[in-house]
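User: UPF0102 protein GCM10011571_17680. Structure?
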Amino acid sequence: MMQVKRQQGRERRPLDRRKETGRIGEEIARRFLENKGWHILDTNWASRLGELDIIAQCEAGLVIVEVRTTRGSRFGYGFQSVGMQKQQQVRKLALQYVQSRRLFHLPLRLDVISVLLSSEDTPIRVDHIEGAF
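Assistant: Predicted structure:
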């Protein structure tokens, strides 16, 4: 039987399947961008407004990448799930990141990478939508 540790009066559960799927997708996306010659500046950068998945620099400038990972296309591909509210949140976070790092001189672009995983957690498809929003 698996033991569950208690932390500050709450049970700490093992990483759930959804978070694990996201972690795997972000790692695949990071490697995908590095293979394109991009320099990864930050991953999972967080502020009180939320979190940016990947911040990278390429020839075009500074790129904020929202990563969406799915384990099947029955309900659509990951990039289709980036709604208006998420887009607004990413825009605000991107500006906050630029201000915190004083990167005003770099052009800014917001991309989406959609990762479709097999049941064995291997990538079936990786779509990179540049300038997605």
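The two ends are 47 Å apart (CA to CA). The longest strand covers residues 61-70.
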